[in-house]
Here is the input.
Amino acid sequence: MATDANASPANAYIPYSCQTIEDEDVAAVVGALKSPFLTQGPEIPAFERAFAELHDIAHCIAVSNATAGLHIACLALGLGPGDRAWTVPNSFVASANCIRYCGAEADFVDIDPISRTMSVAALAEKLAAAESSGELPKIVIPVDFAGMPSDMPAIRTLADRYGFKIVEDASHAVGASLDGNMVGSAWADITVFSFHAVKIVTTAEGGLCATDDAGLAQRMRLLASHGITRDRDLMEEPVPGDWYYEQVLLGYNYRMTDLQAALGRSQLARLPSMQARRESLVNRYNRLLADMPLKLPSARPNAVSAHHLYVVEIDPAGTSATRASLFARLREAGIGVNVHYIPIHLQPYYQRLGFKPGDYPAAEAYYANAVSLPLYPRLSEESQDRVARELAVAL
Ligand SMILES: *Cc1c(COP(=O)(O)O)cnc(C)c1O
Here is the structure.
């Protein structure tokens, strides 16, 4: 949404998220537009290098969106029919759909109500049961909800014990860190980021797969581009001339464009300042809302959140307002609240696969009371005060 709260009258619509596009971003895209390369030019490797450096990861593969990235991450790890993979119900549907794209069985691990990310206790319990029944997952996909890293050290310990791979869905968590390690650099086999317009930095649509494993990186590169290679080391037939390329596996057209990468690299340069602004707005919300009947987001010790979302949960013990009444009241007042997320297992598609209400009580209880408040770098303090005032009235 294009509304700029800084430049708007007092009653202007405040979106829940809004990209930050500066003149330098426009110049970067125009530069790429005027270059000989619109699609596969020098901006993509430059963006991948910048991202790899920032996140301290060896290999980065820019892709068309994070959904595509999750798909090829699962494929690169060999997920297929007869396999199982687990994620959390409290996420965007793409976190589970990638499992289904591979023809594998999707299942869920409930969330921890404090961090709102995968419950390590629930994961450990489910793994123990799955081991006895011979139904261990090949992949587990924790989601760094709202920008807060999942409990990756504990999930890595379980991965080593039970032999599953970790694909970390860090769509919300560009720039986040845990125990001094940038997201993606320490515990997961593959980490996937999103650059959709509502996320931390944007390429309009876009995503990226990151790994320290050269073999996985090579496989994901092939999968993102039709399974085609021009690398002679990967070819199976004699090379008849310089025109020659080979398709060595069945891949997709999941490539990012040079225009998008130029935007991404320009955005990435401002990540620290955008991050600092999000953090200061979050601290301000924490103060403004402290005395309201709301459960506020909590921080994980030793973590730096990317602060993608600011989600409050209504405390039913402290108010007769419901999520529905609060949501309607704020929308009427021109405040673009949202809900992240309707539990994935309750979507009709997943209910048809056998999931039902009651399966994941923590994710369902969270969902019943959750509201995402506006949070983006250009949100003004005046607008934030208005959100707090309207909240106080609605509660
Ligand atoms: C946005 C999002 C995705 C999908 O990202 P796209 O780039 O839009 O495909 C996947 N997982 C989570 C948790 C997301 O928030």
Remarks:
- The chain has a mean pLDDT of 96.
- The domain at 4-16+271-394 is CATH 3.90.1150.10 (Aspartate Aminotransferase, domain 1).
